[in-house]
Specification:
alpha/beta; Rossmann fold; 2 domains; 6-stranded parallel β-sheet; 4-stranded parallel β-sheet; 13 strands; globular; Glyco_trans_1
Length: about 375
């Protein structure tokens, strides 16, 4: 597998690769991972550093990662093909320049791509659609493509030739790690987990909280994450006397992060331009009622949600406040939603996601079991 993201700060894409490779290994496959020359916060096995990484801010809300060759390493395509005789080369977010494009053009093994990014219809990111046709030539050798959501397939499917096999395979979650516990909170605890950038909506949540505490004061908000918008959010909390209601915990991973989920009562997902958020799956697996905005990715995960009033129009602070308030004041509502979430979580087990991915590999190769390593 090849990726172009920053392994020092794992995002949903890197967690996807980490969990997927674990499960593919359990299924008997040899998996090698190739990526940037940076220390990985996740304990990848068979991780090979073969490129340098350049980060460029984009639209004040995101970062574009550009991978480039390094004098320290040999040619990346030759390095990959010299490692093993791979059955498959699997590129994650293949639209990211520049090395992914080179692999798409030069690699000899069958190529599968996974698209992890998507955005809403009214988003500024739609400017990208105008440029998608310019890159179609890079994808002529792709054999199969995976999209982690339906909206992702709608956006990126036009990039691919008609002959390319396409499938939606969602992100997953480990229910044996993310499971519910009965907490004994004296205050109703709200949880926010995300990188602190504008599109993740923490500032909107803080403004909502400011209004919410006028009606209910027995609450607190836990914020997990860091990012370029963090200082602005902390200043807002201080300037609006919210220090007694908000706790910033920073970037938390592993068992400590799971504990925060298990000790929370309501998960707040004020996200925009979301594809298929692993954080929402983690909240679901812990049985935490979810309230958020009607981003396509959020609606797709929570399709059939028993209380549709908890998913409100983007930036509508009044409705967002009322949605959170309804959960704060109604314990029976929280229990009813928890039951629904726990019944749905098994659909997204990483074991099932890996088996679907394996089946797609076989389908692309048009034969039975893969015997050589998967990259």
């Amino acid at each position: 597998m090849f990726f172009s993201s920053n392994p020092e700060r794992p995002d949903g894409l890197l967690h996807h690769i980490f969990y997927l490779t674990q499960e593919l290994t359990k299924l008997g496959h040899s998996v090698y991972i190739f990526g940037p020359n940076r220390k990985s916060a996740l304990p990848f096995k068979n991780y090979k550093k073969i490129i340098n990484l350049v980060e460029i801010p984009f639209l004040k809300e995101a970062t574009i990662f550009i991978t480039v060759k390094s004098k320290k390493f040999n040619d990346p395509v030759k390095t990959i093909e010299g490692q093993e005789k791979f059955d498959i080369i699997h590129i994650h977010d293949p639209y990211l320049p520049l090395i992914a494009w080179e692999i798409l053009k030069k690699a000899k093994a069958p190529i599968i791509t996974t698209f992890h990014t998507a955005w809403d219809e009214n988003s500024g990111f739609n400017i990208i659609k105008s440029f998608i046709p310019l890159f179609q030539d890079y994808f002529t050798k792709v054999s199969g493509s995976i999209f982690v959501s339906k909206i992702g397939k709608k956006i990126w499917g036009t990039l691919l030739p008609a002959k390319v096999k396409k499938i939606v395979i969602n992100n997953g979650v480990y229910s044996n790690l993310f499971y519910p516990l009965e907490n004994k909170n004296k205050k109703i605890t709200l949880l926010f987990v995300a990188r602190i950038v504008p599109r993740k909506g923490l500032m909107i949540l803080l403004k909502t909280l400011k209004e919410l505490i006028k009606d209910v004061s027995n609450i607190k908000l836990i914020v997990l994450g860091d990012g370029p918008h963090l200082i602005t959010c902390k200043e807002y909390v201080k300037n609006n006397q919210l220090e007694n209601f908000v706790e910033f915990k920073g970037y938390i991973t592993g068992k400590n992060k799971i504990k925060y989920y298990q000790n929370s009562d309501i998960f707040c997902a004020p996200y925009r331009n979301e594809n298929f958020a692993i954080t929402i799956l983690e909240a679901m697996s812990c049985g935490i009622p979810i309230v958020g905005f009607d981003s396509n990715g959020v609606k797709e995960i929570l399709s059939g949600y028993p209380d549709s009033d908890l998913i409100v129009p983007y930036k509508n602070i009044k409705l967002f406040k009322e949605a959170i308030k309804s959960l704060v004041l109604d314990d029976s509502k929280r229990k009813r939603i928890r039951k629904w979430l726990l019944a749905k979580r098994e659909k997204y087990s990483w074991e099932k996601i890996a088996k679907k991915t394996e089946e797609f590999y076989y389908r692309v190769l048009s034969r039975g079991r893969v015997t050589r390593p998967v990259h």
